[in-house]
Structures are given as C-alpha cells and as structure tokens.
Design brief:
Blueprint lengths: L5 H14 L3 E10 L2 E13 L5 E10 L1 H23 L3 E5 L5 E4 L1 H7 L3 H4 L13 H13 L5 E2 L6 E4 L5 E13 L2 E10 L1 H37 L4 H17 L1
Antiparallel strand pairs: 1-2, 2-3, 4-5, 4-9, 6-8, 7-8, 8-9
Helix pairs in contact: 6-7
C-alpha cells in the first residue's frame, strides 16, 4: 500500500468500527513492481452480538485507468476554468432550453450580473426587450443549422443589456457543440462601445474634411476666374495665379 494513503485508511476503518458501519467503499493506491496503481475496495464488515468485529470481506478492483482519466479530466477542467477566468471577452454558454450554463468573469464585469445570478437563467436577460424575439429566432436557427461557427455582428450591431438596464453595442461570435446528445451554444461577446465612438469621431472628421476641401476648391476656382479676367496673356495669367495660390497657402 502507498504509504501516503495508509493513515487515511486507518482513520476510516477506525471510525467505521467505532460506529458499527457495515459497508465501506474506499479508494487507495498500491505500489506494485515500482508502479503506482489505484484500487477501489468494497468492504462488508460483520460484528457479533456485542458489537465486536468478527469478519471483513473485501472485493478489490483495479481502477487505475479510470482514475487516470478522472485526473486528466480534472486537470483539463482546471485549465479551461483558468482560461475562462482570464479571458478578456465575455463567454456565455446556453443549453438546449436556452438557459445559461456558463458565465465567465468577463461576462460578470460586462453585464453586471454575478455568475450565481445567471446560471440557469434565460439568455434573454442580456438582450433588450425589443430585440428578444428576433434574437431567440436567430439562436434557434443556428442551433438547428449546420455546425459552423458564426459571427453575429458581421452585418449588423448586436445590442446588449446590463443589469442596470443600460444598453451597449457588442460584437458576438457563436459556436455550438453536441454534448450528451444535446447542442450547447457558446457566445463570445466583446464590448465595442469605444470602437463605435471612434468610428463616429472618424465619420465626423471625414465630413468636416470633405466640407473644407470643397470650400478650398471653390476658393481656388474663384481665384482662377478673377485672375483670368485681368490677364492679357497666358504668361501673365500663370504668374498672377501662382502668386495668389502661394499667398493662399501662406494664409
């Protein structure tokens, strides 16, 4: 028996004998030819009429492969949990009934709800009321369609709703995977409020630039017209026009 497991088993058996337990299921390690193996032990305990232990019958089952798979799964789940915790984007998963099954830290920060508040709740809580019907239809079409990841905001803005009722624009990508015969949809959401503001500022600047360029060209056109009227030759026209344009540039 692995020496690290012996104290735990001794404590378990001692407690069972003192309380009169008759059945135990235990897991422990053994060392066999230098290899560590996992054993599941199912024990039946018999006592006499005065409560003294008389017999134990045990079935020992080698569960090493199962235990290794469990440990690998635990490590994988811990790794995924770590990735979800540090992800900058909100990640939300829903089951076949469109109830939330995953709500990471970034989703908590983005929407203002805690994970405990959202697990088991409908996804509609994160959508403004007037968009909920259309969003539900979109999710249903995606769940019943081909298994292709899709960006929900490629051609239109997707609105989000915070706990306090505030609305904001998000960019969303959705994918799905079948688990236990049921589709699970996962949505990755990114707040694009700052990007939208930057785009609006850029559009305003372009509109202002367009206006100023048109004004400048109109002024040049006027200068050309007035210069031509007072010129007696092409040479004097070119010289006068060049001087006036340099003067405008200096201004």
């Amino acid at each position: 028996m692995h020496p690290d497991d012996l104290p735990r088993l001794e404590t378990t058996f001692g407690r069972a004998f003192s309380t009169g337990e008759t059945e135990l299921v235990l897991e422990f390690r053994i060392v066999r030819l230098g290899e560590v193996r996992w054993i599941e032990s199912r024990v039946l305990i018999s006592y006499n009429e005065v409560g003294r232990l008389t017999r134990m019958i045990g079935a020992e089952i080698d569960v090493t492969e199962r235990k290794r798979a469990e440990l690998a799964l635990e490590a994988s789940e811990a790794k995924i949990a770590g990735i979800l915790a540090i992800a900058g984007d909100a990640i939300v998963s829903v089951d076949g009934n469109y109830r939330i099954t995953l709500f990471n830290d970034a989703a908590e920060r983005l929407f203002g709800y805690s994970r405990g508040e959202m697990i088991g709740q409908p996804l509609d809580l994160l959508i403004p009321m007037r968009f909920r019907a259309a969003h539900q239809q979109h999710i249903e079409r995606f769940a019943s369609g081909p298994d292709i990841p899709r960006r929900m905001a490629e051609h239109r803005e997707v609105p989000g709703r915070r706990k306090n009722g505030e609305e904001f624009p998000v960019e969303a990508s959705i994918s799905k995977v079948k688990i236990g015969g049921e589709w699970v949809c996962t949505v990755v959401l990114r707040n694009i409020t700052e990007r939208k503001h930057a785009e609006e500022r850029q559009h305003a600047l372009l509109a202002e630039l367009d206006h100023r360029v048109k004004n400048a060209l109109a002024t040049v056109s006027s200068v050309v017209s007035h210069t031509r009227q007072g010129s007696k030759s092409v040479a004097t026209f070119a010289e006068a026009l060049s001087a006036r344009i340099r003067s405008m540039a200096s201004s």
